[in-house]
Amino acid sequence: MTFEQVWFGHPAPGTATLPDLAAESAAAREQDWAVADLAFSLVPGGTTALVGASGAGKSTTALLAVGVHQPTRGRIMVNGVDLAELSPAARQRAVGMVTQDVFVLHASLRANLTVARPEATDEQVTEALRHAQLAALIDTLPQGLDTTVGDRGFRLSGGERQRLSLARLFLAGPDIVILDEATAHLDTLTEAALHEAMTRHLAGRTMLIIAHRRSTVENADQTVRLDRGRVVEIDYADAAR
To answer: Spelled out in words, what is the top-level CATH class assigned to the domain 2-240?
Structure first.
């Protein structure tokens, strides 16, 4: 994945259409851009850490990478194809994301997982839960995988909801993985176990990781530092070794 001079500005209040958004953003002052002139590539098959102070543009960059936001200027290329030109299904196969705030359906545990891979078998679902350190949860629920987890997942703790999102990722198996504070609600031991699982089961995939804990990104192949929406530094691991 390559960011080619990507700019993005949030729409002004009341702005509803893409043409309006483009007009607003083109006229905006430089400091009004959420991200400006992003130009960098993720390490193919490796890990890129995205760091910077709060408000530097890290989460906006992640949302651009997964296609939630569309660049106002520039483009994001995936295997030579503009991300904006991919169908929603193709985009979901290409890029997967886990964030600190997890969306949970008012549905069964099984349905919350197979939304990432509708054809998945119960065996594959259970395996994904095991990789996400959630296999024991099934035994505590009254109907197992068929238990409704409730509106916004009220039956689950914050850490369990986050691990549910990671299980979706394991089940979907996208080529590019984006983790935005994906283990923020987890204790240190669970976080370490999940990182081991990710290293083992997401090996060979291209990863973009946003995290405040140094331990989460210390082994990254490259580190991209943002400041006020701009890339100010790129450090390569090999240069430091």
So the answer is: alpha beta
